[in-house]
Amino acid sequence: MNARHTAAPSTDLDHQREAIAGLGHELRALVDATVRTVTPADVLHRVTDEVRRLTSQLTGRRRTRTEIPHVDEFPGGIRMFSPVTGPGNPLAPPVRVTPDGDGVTGHCTLGIAHEGPPGYVHGGMSAMLLDELMGWACSAAGTPAMTVSLQLRYHGPVPVETPLRVHARVTGTEARKVFVTGSITTEADGDRQLVTAEAVFVAPDPERARALFPER
Amino acid sequence: MNARHTAAPSTDLDHQREAIAGLGHELRALVDATVRTVTPADVLHRVTDEVRRLTSQLTGRRRTRTEIPHVDEFPGGIRMFSPVTGPGNPLAPPVRVTPDGDGVTGHCTLGIAHEGPPGYVHGGMSAMLLDELMGWACSAAGTPAMTVSLQLRYHGPVPVETPLRVHARVTGTEARKVFVTGSITTEADGDRQLVTAEAVFVAPDPERARALFPER
């Protein structure tokens, strides 16, 4: 009885996460079509009306500003709606993060929706990828922490619609400070660093951690 | 006759831009509902199917990777699909940029879709806002340029669902280098800088500019 009680919600949770990821995936395709299409205004107006109708179908309760989604494991686990890694967030590429020998590696391909100069990724988006991966590197090293200082160097433009690799690793710690480096390359040319980053993260003291990361 | 010829496309262009901005606005609302809703999986599946159907309605030609949208003025003008300022890009808040006494100021409110720590803006999103505004500051100063180095300092968390002000200004130039500073505050407390940035931008040499910014 207890076992069934434990198993059932887990399966429900998996189904819910799959449904959320499925919607995120299709919305990403709609966003891509929206920023690329050369469609007459009357078609855009009709699609706009239908989008408004769809939004009204997502009825029911909406979570409040600081509420952790019930499908998440927080802190330190699944975040379905992260703007970088969340499969349920249409803004996220999403980046798939895997541990590697000396840190973490993220894999993603960015679309035209993330474009700065024509054909290339917005410089701020590269910052977002690196900040996120460097945070994962801190957690992977056992010292979850927050960015206090981030230095980015842009060596070459990062192409859109091209598989990318983002690497980050902790290089040292000093009291509550964690020092981290990161880089972005294409998957095809892993030796040519297009953007590099150095950051200082700080593990929040317990009081601040409670304020920033409220318990579920 | 010539005058009418000139006026007609301009009006068409305005209508097209309005339609693009309208769709961007409604998609932003759908994205917000998607990342906030606590909706059963069956409803999410139904909405997913409808989103897929909508994407298929945005038929016709899709612009290619480096093609400038015909609704844009580029370089140096309107960019309808910018991921930061573009009203037609569902990923953009969008930021409204206005010149001020000594640089440029951007106004925006970020939603939960841009969340890092619960209730607060993702640190990378703050970087994206600052990188974008610092680029505008370069253009406003008559020296359009690209980021080569960006240093961010996070002094305090930036709240979501709160009107924000992003300020950037050029502090000096040296040959093709442009030095820029920037900051993020809330609209309510303009004295308390939550994130500050210093950057070096470089005006591309003509050959590189042609490669990065192809003529229409």
**Which oligomeric state applies?**
homodimer
**What would you give as the CATH superfamily of the largest domain in chain A?**
Hotdog Thioesterase
Q: Provide mean pLDDT of chain A, rounded.
A: 90
> Main sheet of chain A, how many strands, which sense, barrel?
6 strands, antiparallel
SS content category of chain A:
alpha+beta
CATH architecture assignment of the largest domain in chain A: Roll
* Portion in beta strands of chain A: 15-25%
Enumerate the spans of chain A where pLDDT stays under 50 for 5 or more consecutive residues.
1-8
Number of strands of chain A: 6
Distance between the termini of chain A: 26 Å
What is the CATH third-level topology name of the largest domain in chain A? Answer: Thiol Ester Dehydrase, Chain A
Order of strands across the main sheet of chain A: 1-2-4-5-6-3
The succession of helices and strands of chain A, N to C, reads HHEEHEEEEH
Helix content of chain A: 25-40%
Report the principal-axis shape of chain A: globular
Q: What is the CATH class name of the largest domain in chain A?
A: Alpha Beta
Quick structural gist:
The structure is a homodimer of 216-residue chains. With 216 residues, chain A is an alpha+beta fold.
Describe this structure as you would to a colleague.
Two copies of one chain form a homodimer. With 216 residues, chain A is an alpha+beta fold. Chain A contains four helices and six strands. Residues 1-8 of chain A have low confidence and may be disordered. Helix content of chain A is 36%, strand content 23%. Chain A has a six-stranded antiparallel sheet, covered by helices on one side. Chain A has two domains: 1-92, no CATH class; 96-212, Roll (Thiol Ester Dehydrase, Chain A), CATH 3.10.129.10. Chains A and B meet through helix 1, helix 2, helix 3 and strand 3 of A and helix 1, helix 2, helix 3 and strand 3 of B. Strand 3 of chain A pairs antiparallel with strand 3 (146-154) of chain B.
